[in-house]
Design a protein that fits this description.
The chain has about 110 residues and is mainly alpha-helical. About 60% of the residues lie in helices and about 5% in strands.
């Protein structure tokens, strides 16, 4: 996986300025390492990079307010950016799953 490819994917999911890019670099590097640590077989770099970008996007959405404002008697509750970012992460992780170690429950017979 290439960090620059993860950045390109992340820029598709959210606006990232040059200043933010340097601030978010540790998150991108951590996401790449987390995904690489789960890699089970070679290949699937595009899917793995998309999953790393989606993970960073979700992490960033958790630090942002979800929106909402009040104007007089009218109150608007913001969208669900965190839910959407989490769904994008789950979808990207599922797409990359064939290239990752399965961490699900395994039922085995004891000899």
């Amino acid at each position: 996986m290439e960090t620059e490819n993860v950045w390109a994917r992340l820029r598709l999911l959210r606006e990232v300025s040059t200043q933010q890019q340097s601030a978010y670099l540790p998150l991108v590097q951590d996401a790449v390492q987390r995904i690489e640590a789960k890699r089970a077989q070679p290949g699937g770099d595009n899917l793995l990079e998309a999953a790393a970008a989606a993970l960073v996007n979700w992490q960033l959405s958790l630090t942002e307010p979800d929106g909402g404002f009040t104007a007089g008697d009218v109150r608007f509750e913001g969208g669900h950016a965190q839910d959407s970012a989490h769904k994008i992460w789950r979808d990207a992780f599922a797409a990359a799953a064939p290239f990752l170690h399965d961490e699900a429950f395994v039922f085995r017979r004891i000899p």
